[in-house]
Design a protein that fits this description.
Helix 3 crosses helix 5. A seven-stranded mixed β-sheet has the order 5-4-1-6-8-7-9, with helices on both faces. A three-stranded antiparallel β-sheet has the order 3-2-10. The longest helix has 13 residues. The chain is globular and about 40 Å long. The protein has one domain: Alpha-Beta Complex (Spore Coat Polysaccharide Biosynthesis Protein SpsA, Chain A), CATH 3.90.550.10. By secondary structure, it is of the alpha/beta class.
């Protein structure tokens, strides 16, 4: 430990699930996973942020699969078409081999240093709430319960992630005025110092 800085929490029974299956229509359909900040692609930045703290990483994506393999990342494709983010969550929990799954959208801009510790301390499924409100895709999922619940939601064509979380009795973990942010528009990219990369 250096000075008063706390060591990161370890959560070995958790898998990081990066949601990278979006179409990025407002950015011309680019693959957001490979947007770069300081020459580091988004998907690698998120992986590297948590690699020493969790068991493994899975990436929910439906395109550019060889590119992920080149960087040692395991991918999972949607099993259900046209189901939005819920399809990604379904694919991740189906492939997950740990008790917990922590999901993050690949276009998240910032993550607080105590993020994992606060999620792990929750003791049950939870989702983030920041200065912009509820962030249902930034969440910690109890895998066994989520598998059954997401299957029921998909069968009923109930695709809202917040409704699934309500069924699972997931409560928010509040991060005050902190903003996770996202990369949806060219202005978002400029504000975050992000470029379209080629790595």
């Amino acid at each position: 430990m250096r000075g008063s800085r706390k060591e990161p929490a370890n959560f070995p029974n958790c898998t990081l699930g990066i949601l990278a299956g979006g179409q990025a229509t407002r950015l011309g359909g680019i693959d957001k996973a490979w947007l770069q900040r300081d020459c580091v692609p988004q998907v690698l930045r998120l992986h590297d942020m948590f690699v020493s703290q969790i068991r493994t990483t899975l990436v929910s994506t439906n395109r550019n699969l060889p590119r992920y393999v080149e960087h040692g990342l395991q991918t999972v494709a949607d099993r259900i078409v046209d189901a939005g983010p819920l399809a990604g969550i379904d694919a991740l929990v189906a492939a997950c081999r740990t008790e917990w799954l922590m999901t993050l959208p690949v276009d998240v801009v910032a993550v607080p240093p105590d993020f994992l510790a606060r999620f792990a301390a929750n003791g049950q499924g939870t989702f983030a709430e920041d200065g912009d409100g509820s962030q249902p895709l930034i969440a910690l999922w109890p895998v066994a319960k989520t598998r059954d619940a997401v299957a029921s939601s998909l069968a009923a064509n109930a695709l809202a992630v917040h409704e699934l979380q309500s069924r699972l009795d997931m409560l928010p973990t509040r991060f005050g005025h902190f903003r996770f942010g996202n990369l949806n528009t060219p202005d978002d990219l400029d504000g975050a110092g992000v470029t379209i990369g080629t790595i």
